[in-house]
Amino acid sequence: MIKQLIPTLFFLLMCTIAGAQSQRITGRITDINNQPVAAASIFVQASGNGTKSDNDGSFELQLADKDKQFTVTAIGFESYTQIRHAGNNYNITLQPALRNLNEVVMVGTRSSGRTRLNTVAPVDVFNIAKLQTLAPQNDLNQLLQYVSPSFNSNRQSSSDGSEHIDPASIRGLGPDQLLVLINGKRRHTTSLVNNQGTVGNGSVGTDLNAIPSSAIERIEVLRDGASAQYGSDAIAGVVNIVLKQNTHQLFASTTGGITSRGDGGLGQLNLNYGTGIGKQGGYINLTGEAYYRDKTTRAQNNNLIIFDQSALNNFFAYDFANDPAASRKYDDDMLKQKGLKRDDFNFQIGDAKIKNVATFFNLSLPFNSGRSEFYSFGGYSYRQGEGFGFRRLPSDPTVNVYSIYPDGYQPNTDSRIHDRSIAVGLKHKLGNWQADLSNALGDNRFDYQVDHTVNASLKAASPTSFKAGGHEFLQNTTNLDFSRRFAGVAAGLNLAFGGEFRVDDYRIRSGEEASWKNYALVINNDGTVSNPSGLAGGSQSFTGFSPENAIHKSRNNTGIYIDGELDVTQKWLISAASRLEHYSDFGTALSGKFATRYKLSPVFNVRGAVSNGFRAPSLHQQYFSYVSTDILPDNTLGQSGFFTNQSKIAKALGIPKLKQETSLNYSLGFTAQAARNFNISVDGYLTDIKNRIVLTGSFGFDPNGNPVDAIQKIINPLGARSARFFSNAVDTRTVGVDVVADYNIKSGDNSFNASLGFNYNKNKITGNLHIPDQLKGQEQIYFSPNDSVLITEGTPRVKINLSLTYGYKKFSVLLRNVYFGEVARNSFPFGEVQVHKGKVVTDLSFSYAVKPVVFTIGANNLLDVFPDKQIYGNSYFDVFKYASVQMGTLGSFYFARVTFNIPTGKK
């Protein structure tokens, strides 16, 4: 069918090129202050012709004989429709937009001119440039966390790489079920597998914080399944980041802040500059960002200090099972004898220390009288992170070298993350067709270094710093797209089709030998391997990747799609898309989507959609293997191994090979413009996912935490006491509703905006566990209760965002309350499920503008709200006071910001 369709579309293309007489018109677009509006879109619905205004607001456009009117849109302005008259010149004045819900969107549609209120699927639009001035948040994940009710992202603690790249998701689904685009082009994911029991456990996401917020004009969040439109990974939805195009403007911002506890100090510098190029509306926009965030400490009061290794053979049993108060007095006595104080030995649990520098660019070079355009965008980000592992006690000789650390130690896991991307493309008008050829290359490299640690098996010869290796993911995507509007088909047909070829490349690099090797292992006479001394090998806290973990794999994906939107009448719109994709390692899959929108009145629309999708296992999930230090089911720190499904141990246990996830998405809702300044949208949704990829529990122990000797004999020679794998273990269902409302009013020098976002989201596991027959009886190991809780209750079931903004002349104030609903968490294998009650977080900021400078002060979490304290069983012997759920564990954060917007040169 696809092969028959392509020649037909090609024939339509050739016929269109040959036809249609036209007339060239000119004009200039300005605002109410007679200032030029650059990059405004001028679009003719009848013929499909369009262009953009130059830096001075001028434009040229071809009108066909049948074109009776054209529409002008620009970010921050009301849409304007101009009736064609006898002359050839048009001077158009745009009015400032009072309703951001009417911004034209790029995502979820390939038809120009669709707005948030008339799309067939729900799309949120967030003005990042405005948020960056007023909001207390300073990175992209947190900005979205506090304005989008369906978006969730929290900073993690003591979770290896997940401390340095924050996982993010929408509607409570996995980070790898959310597709990220930049300027409509696919963004690469990270090389990191989240594997330390955080939300999104076992998934691979996109590092949004590698993109400087000052490079972004707006973010569009499509809250609907879109695999048929954009390909695999779009099961939950799509985030499209639209980069700035402004010219002759210098933006600079500096922010400083600190928490109410005197830690977590922040310093940030943002620079953005745009300038025009040529006489046909070209531009280049450049961004630089430097960011520093100090660590925070949110541990309990240092209960894990024991200095006399001979005093206690079993620290845990004494310190908390018997008498915590007596053990604390014992610790204090030991400190006093050594002339030390308790604060010298803080157990660091909180946000990691982060240093980040990033640069981005966005380039457009129109030529051929505006009929062609060369474009490019991309950037580079370098991040250093410092996270903290569990404290090693001087009384435990298996993990400590007493001569090096007589008082014990807490290891640091340091990251070096390079994120690089570049996209280049060429757009060209072929008659009434728009062709777009592009290539996007992205790479994420993550290197680990472990400091303040030892390899205990080396004893006194051990280094205290190790290069532990790392991982890297590269993705190259080539697209060829064609689109055209047919005005004569019903009330208008927009047709798009094209193809994509993508190459994924994943590798793991081994660390230096001492970072992973156990020098205490001996080979017995019968050829078996044992560890008679019991000394742990490798760098403590984060064991280096070994040569057995090192791997280099790649695959390719070819896809073709067709996407149409038909205005059956002026009131009724239908949309359909189909996509055929072939993976070199997972075969072929076909996905489709049908959506419709009907205008019951000029101010009330109903809309709905149904689609299916799929997601092939990532290369990371297929080939990631690693042995790390973790809390084991027997309530001890030990080595936990992740093994591939192709490994010998997987085959010995009967772990099946991975296959793709499949999904069905349904949505139904309405949009209404209840009054001139008030808009509301309500959308219900249901998403069924079959064969969802999750991490298994820890094989090697029974459900009661007792070692299973038969399995231990297999995995112990591999340097591990437990083994985990990826599996298609469960089916899930997600149901919910989104409500977005916006009210704006302006009267004289006064302006007021109220924005409300509401999300109710329920995830549940459906059907039976997909467990092989040979593993029957080990259901709680194959899919652990911990991971079940993370999926079903790990993100808030209810989230509400209410923002109130008031402006008077040069003064503005933002008051925002975010309700994070209750969540459940089982933090450790020996813990129990704990429900954390819902909480309200209040943000407040004040701004004063003295052109071209804006001064802002304020606070995030003004009332110092924290999640509920963890119950004892989930607190790792009373150390982890709070779990990183809901709003995280930062507490009150105060900030001051100075922002400059300086016009430069002639517009």
TrEMBL record:
Annotated region (Disordered), positions in chain: 151-170
Cited InterPro entries: Beta-barrel_TonB, Beta-barrel_TonB_sf, CarboxyPept-like_regulatory, Plug_dom, Plug_dom_sf, TonB-dep_rcpt-like
Segments forming domain TonB-dependent receptor plug: 118-238
Domain of life: Bacteria
Transport in keyword set: yes
Signal sequence region: 1-20
Domain TonB-dependent receptor-like beta-barrel, chain residue ranges per copy: 373-862
Protein name as catalogued: Iron complex outermembrane receptor protein
